[in-house]
Fold this protein.
Amino acid sequence: MLICLCLTVFVSELLLSFLRKIKFIFVLLGMDEQRIPVWWRWYYWGNPVAWTLYGLVASQYGDIQGSVDFNGKSTSVEEFLRKYFGFRHDFLGVVSAVLIVFAVTFACIFAIAIKLLNFQRR
């Protein structure tokens, strides 16, 4: 999508490398919404990788009642995910809908950009 919106591949790659670094800061550090500064919370909710990680972890581990030891406390896996990451298993329907909206939005922006923006010189 970004390549279709930019004038050259080099500009799109420059923008993409910047956006990729910011995106993975939030995802790979495992920061939940409460630990992110207020001015960056919009990006947490607008990050497709964060929604994908939420869906994968919550669907695979969100309903496990087995115990896990963390910081000397024993708690269930479901409670651990809810307390430390904010992942809830009953929120999977919303996560699926948001991921579908992301995919459709990116596909529509790509289609519109490829039709309307023509950077070729004749």
